[in-house]
Automatic annotation (TrEMBL):
SMART domains on file: ELFV_dehydrog
Protein name: Glutamate dehydrogenase
Similarity annotation: Belongs to the Glu/Leu/Phe/Val dehydrogenases family.
Subunit details: Homohexamer.
SUPFAM superfamilies, alphabetized: Aminoacid dehydrogenase-like, N-terminal domain, NAD(P)-binding Rossmann-fold domains
Keyword Transferase: no
InterPro entries named in the record: Aminoacid_DH-like_N_sf (IPR046346), Glu/Leu/Phe/Val/Trp_DH (IPR006095), Glu/Leu/Phe/Val/Trp_DH_C (IPR006096), Glu/Leu/Phe/Val/Trp_DH_dimer (IPR006097), Glu/Leu/Phe/Val_DH_AS (IPR033524), Glu_DH (IPR014362), Glu_Leu_Phe_Val_DH (IPR050724), NAD(P)-bd_dom_sf (IPR036291)
PROSITE patterns: GLFV_DEHYDROGENASE (PS00074)
UniProt keyword NAD present: yes
Pfam families xrefs: ELFV_dehydrog, ELFV_dehydrog_N
Keywords for this protein: NAD, Oxidoreductase
Organism for this UniProt entry: Arenibacter algicola
CDD domains named in the record: NAD_bind_2_Glu_DH
Amino acid sequence: MEDKINAFMEEVKGRNSHEPEFIQAVQEVAETVIPYISNHEIYNGKNILLRMVEPERLISFRVSWVDDDGEIHVNRGYRIQMNSAIGPYKGGLRFHPTVNASVLKFLAFEQVFKNSLTTLPMGGGKGGSDFDPKGKSDDEVMRFCHAFMTELCRHIGPNTDVPAGDIGVGAREIGFLFGMYKKIRNEFTGVLTGKGLSWGGSKIRPEATGYGTVYFAQSMLQSKKDDVKGKTVVISGSGNVAQYAAEKVIQLGGKVVTLSDSGGYIYDKEGIDEEKLAFVMEIKNKNRGRISDYLDKYTSAEFHKGKTPWEVPCAIALPCATQNELDGNDAKTLLKNGCICVAEGANMPSTPEAIHAFHEARILFAPGKASNAGGVATSGLEMSQNSLRISWTREEVDERLQKIMKDIHDSCIDYGMDEDGYCNYVKGANIAGFVKVADAMLAQGVI
Ligand SMILES: NC(=O)C1=CN([C@@H]2O[C@H](COP(=O)(O)OP(=O)(O)OC[C@H]3O[C@@H](n4cnc5c(N)ncnc54)[C@H](O)[C@@H]3O)[C@@H](O)[C@H]2O)C=CC1
Ligand SMILES: O=C(O)CCC(=O)C(=O)O
C-alpha cells in the first residue's frame, strides 16, 4: 500500500513541485483514500483521485486599483474551480498577502471533500488575492473589491460558481463585491453568500463556522459521555470563526481563556465572558485593531507577544486562525497539559506531525474539513433561501446547522472507526467526502 501512495504522491509532486501546502493537503487524503480505493472494486483503475487533484479550471488575473493618494497598485486575483461533480463550485475568497496558487489549491481541494460532507449539492472552489486589507481605508477596500469583481464576474454565477468570505473577506467586502456584480450583470441573484440580511443573506451565516465547530466538538465529547460544559478552552484567532466559536463555548458553559492574532495571544485566566467578547468584536470588526487592545480595558489579562496560545493548559483546543499554526511541539505541549479534544475551526491548522501526535495519544481530533463545514453548509442554506426567495428564522437555520454537523460527525464515525474502537476522524472525513464525489464522477464519465 505504501508503494501505491508513494507512486501517487510522486506524480502529484512532479506536477505541483512548488506548492507545499497543496501537496500537504493531498498527502493527507491519499494516505486514507488510496487504501479505501484499493479495497473497493468500482473505484479501481479509474484514476479518480488523480482526476480530483487537478483543478477543472484555474483562473488568474490582474487587479489594478488606485489608493487614496492616487497611486496605482497591481495585485493578482485567482479563482480555482476544483470540482463540480456534485454541484456548482462553492468556496470562499481570501484576501491576504500570503495568498498564492498553492494556498488556494489546498483550500479548494479541501473544500471539495468538505462540501460533499455537508450533504448539500455543492462542488468545491476557492479564490482570492494577495491584496492586504490591513491598514487600507474603506474606500481603498471598495475600489479593490470593485476591480476584483470586474474580472471575476465573467467566471461565476448562481448555477456556476458561488464565492463567499474567508480570511480578510467579511461582510464589508462581500457587499462591495456583490454591488459590482449586480451592476455589471444587471441581475440580483444568489451569486455570493455571506450577504447582508436586508439583501439576500441568511441568518446565522456569520456565526455558522464557529458555532458548527463547537457543535462538532460537542458531538465528539458526547460520544465519550463528556461535555463542553465546565471545560477550559483555548482558541486561536480573533476573526469571524474564533469570535463565534468563543460565543458558542460560552453559551454551552465552557470557559474561553485565549484569543490571538498574528501579533500574539491574550490570556484571560478569569475567562472571556459575553461582555468581554463584545469588546473583542468591537476591536476587530469595528476598529480593525489588534487583539492586544483587549488589555486597554481588561488590564488583568496577559498579552504574549509573537506567541501562539497552545502553551496554555486546557481540555479543548480550537485552532481558528490559519494553516499550519499548530505544530508537533505544540501538540506535545497540549497533550502534556491534559488536552483531550481538538476541533479545527481553521483550514489545515495542524501540521501532519501534530495530527500524528493527537492520533497516537488517542484523543478526539477533528480535521477542519469536517468540523468547520458549518460555514459552507449555511452558505448552502443561503443559496436555497435565495432560490426559493424566502428567509428562514434564526431558529430554523440553527436547527438545520446542528443537524448537518451531527450528520457529518456520524459519517466520520461510519468511515473512520478503527478496530480498537478509536475514531480516526481524518480517515472518516476523507473517505465519506470522497465516496459521494467519486460516485458522481463515475456516473458522469470521463470528462
Ligand atoms: N469564514 C468562514 O466561514 C470560514 C473560515 N474558515 C477558515 O477559518 C480560518 C479563519 O478565517 P476567518 O475567521 O474567516 O478569517 P478572519 O479574517 O475573520 O480572521 C482571521 C484570523 O486569523 C488571524 N491570523 C491570520 N494570519 C495569522 C497568523 N499568521 N498567525 C496568527 N493569526 C493569524 C487573524 O488575526 C484573524 O484573527 C481560516 O483558516 C479560514 O480558511 C473555514 C471555514 C469557513
Ligand atoms: O461559505 C462558503 O462558501 C465558503 C466557506 C469557506 O471558504 C470554507 O469552508 O473554507
